[in-house]
Amino acid sequence: MIVDINKLKILLKFDGIDCSNFSDEEFEVIVNSKLHELEGFIGADIIPHNRRFISHDFKGGVLELGFYPIISVHRILVDDECLPKTEYNVNNDLGIVYFKDRIIGSYRKVKVEYTSGISDRDFNSLIVPLVKDMVGYTVSFGIANGNLGGYGFLSNSLHEGDVSVTFANGSKGSSNVDYGYNSGINSTIDELRKRYSVSARVRWL
Whole-prediction pTM value? Predict the structure, then answer.
């Protein structure tokens, strides 16, 4: 999953935020830092990560993987033998493997190799717009901090021509958590957190 850096700069320009003074490499660093920051906030993988689950004492019909959502399961080995894909189903959203036949009797060694991360559609429709806003907020705060001699954090808002930027200063999302952004961004992060890390397995249980 790749964020189109040039497209993001154009969208920010339409929001009144000029990022032309950043090189593509510098801007990419900002974007990637926000993606990793967002992963920490919502408690789920956004960027694809190759994972490996190993249990030396598994039995049963349902296996919960530690990271989800899942993009794909590459292979499952039971006692070092590859299990045919027809022998299991995967709920990608919840990170759960359902075995066709329960693994019963003595405990078995099970290894699952998979890639966690969100779907391309969610990445483009939910994550990219939010990262754009997070980058825009950070850049605007940096400009304000410079204009106010390093005291930007004491200001509630900054007006520069036709552009008005409101800062967080304790603004919280719907779950009363302050992620360090304005209330709109905080609330969007809350919604993603509920979607990916809080409600998924609660619904399954």
Answer: 0.72
